[in-house]
Design goal:
Blueprint: H1 3-19, E1 44-50, E2 58-61, H2 75-92, E3 98-104, H3 109-119, E4 128-134
Parallel strand pairs: 1-3, 3-4
Antiparallel strand pairs: 1-2
Helix pairs in contact: 2-3
Length: 136
């Protein structure tokens, strides 16, 4: 009879699920892309995310990493600033149909998620988000 072995397996599974600890601050190294399509920068709005140990992401509007392009404030203010930037850029140029989020290799996933959520607020179904990891 195999029933006791199945019981032991489920007990071990439940034990490891309860005992294991998730660490949300862990940096996840993204794998290198082997395949992918190129996206022309002329038809995309660009947002750059830098790696930081802080709880608030370091985000730049456009390709430039200048102080004028840097988003400031708390998470809500940064989300609003990114959302407004993407909406204004898309409205200004009808050829722009996508958003490229360029992130450093060591960017925390939660920072990338904050930026992606802000970017996707006002996008329509035919507008696409592309996420690229910058190699060092």
């Amino acid at each position: 009879d195999i029933t006791p072995m199945i019981d032991i397996t489920f007990l071990l599974l439940a034990f490891f699920v309860v005992v294991s600890k998730m660490d949300p601050t862990t940096i996840v190294n993204m794998p290198r892309a082997k395949y992918g399509d190129s996206v022309p920068e002329k038809t995309a709005v660009i947002v750059v995310v830098d790696a930081t140990e802080e709880d608030i992401p370091v985000v730049y509007k456009g390709k430039s990493r200048s102080d004028e392009a840097k988003c400031s404030g708390g998470i809500v203010e940064i989300e609003d600033e990114i959302s407004n930037y993407v909406k204004d850029e898309m409205a200004a140029d009808p050829l722009k149909t996508s958003v490229i989020i360029k992130a450093e290799r060591k960017v925390k996933y939660r920072h990338l998620d904050i930026v992606k959520r802000a970017v996707s607020r006002d996008l329509t179904e035919d507008q696409v988000i592309h996420i690229g990891i910058e190699e060092e």
